[in-house]
Amino acid sequence: MTVIAAGPAASTAPRAAGYTHAAAWIVGLAVAWGATPEVGDTHARIATAYADRPVQAIAQALLVHGVAAAALAVVGSGLLDRARRTGNAMARFAGRAGTAAGALAFVQLVLELIAVSGADPASPGRTGALFEVVQRVDGVKMFALAALAAAACATSRHDSLLRRWEAVTGWALAVTITASGIGYLLPATALAPTAFVSLPLLLVWIAALGAALGRRP
After folding, report:
1. CA distances from 202 to 9, 118, 146, 171, 179 (A)
2. Residue boundaries of the structural domains of the chain
3. What pLDDT does 158 receive?
4. What's the rounded Cα separation, in Å, for the pair 206 and 118?
5. Using CA atoms, how far apart are residues 152 and 90, in angstroms rounded to an integer?
């Protein structure tokens, strides 16, 4: 049976998306550094932060839960395309996990925009509640990203998707981002700070995964 090779656009899109994902996160964190609320903040502090710096908060949301989410969906689509071409079931699972993570990030974006637009320090309950929902959705998204990493690494046992260092990084990401996910599902727990480890791993690994999908199988 003849396998039809994907065109240049199909192979370069995941690579560009992987780099875009990392860039969107880095710029998003930079534009609102210290200006947005954190896990464990009171409702009053959350509402005040959003009300004082709405432009920075919205810019960050659009970048990390908008642009980065779209890029993640493209990487997930690249995995699904690879699964169709190679018949690898784990690649299919990884692709679905990646697209699910992207969809959850879009949910976060919508909730954040609602929270920021309605922020009122005099009545912080609604904004604080929305922020907490965003964090819990983030926890679920982290589990999806852990599944993506683990499945993509498992895929590499049967084909040449990832190089050794990429697989090692992926397994490290799966472990640390699972811990982060538990921390975000249960805000203010001791596990939430593991995001400081899992996020850099995520940015490096998604970029590496995109580049790997750009290589011929």
Report:
1. 24, 31, 10, 11, 13
2. 9-214
3. 74
4. 33
5. 7
Residue 98 has phi, psi (to 5 degrees) of: -65, -45
* Crossing angle for the helix pair 125-155 and 89-117, to the nearest 10 degrees: 160
Q: Count Cβ atoms within 10 A of the Cβ of residue 133 and give its class: 0-12 exposed, 13-18 middle, 19 or more buried.
A: middle
**Tokens 């996160």 sit at which residue?**
25
Note the pLDDT of residue 5.
43
Residue 124 to residue 134: CA distance in whole angstroms: 15
Contact assessment for residue 92 and residue 158, using Cβ atoms and an 8 Å cutoff? no
Cα–Cα nearest to 184, from 39, 65, 43 = 39
Residues of the chain with confidence (pLDDT) below 50? 1-7
- Res 59: pLDDT: 96
**CA distance linking residue 67 with residue 199, whole number of Å:** 16
Three-state SS string over the chain comes to CCCCCCCHHHHHHHHHHHHHHHHHHHHHHHHCCCCCCCCCCCHHHHHHHHHHCHHHHHHHHHHHHHHHHHHHHHHHHHHHHHHHHHCCHHHHHHHHHHHHHHHHHHHHHHHHHHHHHCCCCCCCHHHHHHHHHHHHHHHHHHHHHHHHHHHHHHHCCCCCCCCHHHHHHHHHHHHHHHHHHHHHHCCCCCCHHHHHHHHHHHHHHHHHHHHHHHCCC
- Alpha-carbon span 201 to 207, nearest angstrom: 10
Residues making up the chain, counted from first to last? 217
